[in-house]
Please model this.
Amino acid sequence: MTRKRLLCVSYDGRDANELRDDAMGDWEIRTVSTLADAARELRQHRYLVGLLMHDRDLLRPAELDTFLRRHSNMQWVGVFRPRDLESALCRDLVVEHLCDYHTAPVDPVRLAHTLGHAHGWAMLRRRSEPSADAGGSPLIGNCDAIVRLRAQVERVAKVAAPVLIWGESGSGKELTAQAVHTHSERADGPFVPINCGAISPTLIHSELFGYERGAFTGATKGKAGLIESAHGGTLFLDEIGDLPKDLQANLLRFLQEKTISRLGSTRAIEVDVRVVAASHVQLQEAVAKGNFREDLYYRLAVLPVTVPPLRERRDDLVVLAEHFFRLYSNEKSPRLKGFSNRAIAAIMEHDWPGNVRELINRVRRALVMSDGRLVMPEDLGLGQSSAAMAPAALDDARLRTERSALRECLDRSGQNVSRAARELGVSRTTMYRLLSKHGMRS
Model:
């Protein structure tokens, strides 16, 4: 039988020894007497469950609150004297930080059951964490689409040719570009991201290529551009489709010659960078419309990579939601422990038009808005699931069809209610009721 591990914080250790003897033979119990010792133990070893026995540290609730906040990834159970719970500070600690509590004197069997349940819950949370199969990649998930993407990234990272990443807004194009950089021989060099659609058209040339002193009013000294600052690393050109046509020619020249000229200078500067570009629009269509240079497109699209939208990664939704829950856990209440079953169902049902960016925003919103122990659909802004909305949408469609049929029948009958009723096969009473229902007059 696998022995579970428990960190017990007990001033004198007597209660912990009683537990070990009576009811917890399948547990490996490590007992410490102070919070400082507990923190030291947690730096060296991993525990899923902790037990707080009533001790002198409870006399310093602020210190205990800080300790439990720092180690909120564990499941904590408390044991208190009944009079301890008369203190509002003590009750707040229980509500905010503990998954359960018992009162002294302890029933070892009941407490062992509680700790076993806490350990089982912690194991479930642990299994929902991103798999180590990602090999340290920032591209988290195990579905077929993301496994293929990671394999693509590893292949294209090994060569120096330009990469063109396509994906919907919010799907993770910059994260994919970072993964290409991280797995390449340039990983120790800079990764310089540039959003081509976010820089003012009047400034983008000087931002990309730099400028010399006196190149324009206010240029009191020279400045290296973003391309030059990426020397020895990777230049990420996000939303490349938004780059003005005149700068597309300059970028093409740089890709061909590996040199740039700062604004106000005729001197060519050699720059060694790996170019990774991304777009949420299909550049082939932009080429066909004359909005993007065809020769630049073929220069950039040597190694094309497609990032799957979140709706094609259904199997990863819960994994990603749990990852962002942990990533932004400093923004949540300590009492918030995870997602409810209803929240998970709402996450699975949602179409995620905003992709991973939308998932991040909704999880962060839930961390702030939740006032219970578990995130609910309403906290995510998904209070009415698509399944719940379907009947309402169907009823609305039926009403529109019924109203249209009534109107057409009345028009054909010359607004004669009796004739229209006969044509529809209903009584005049029913016909008047239907007209009243839809606010129509004959």
Q: What stands out?
A: The two ends are 81 Å apart (CA to CA).
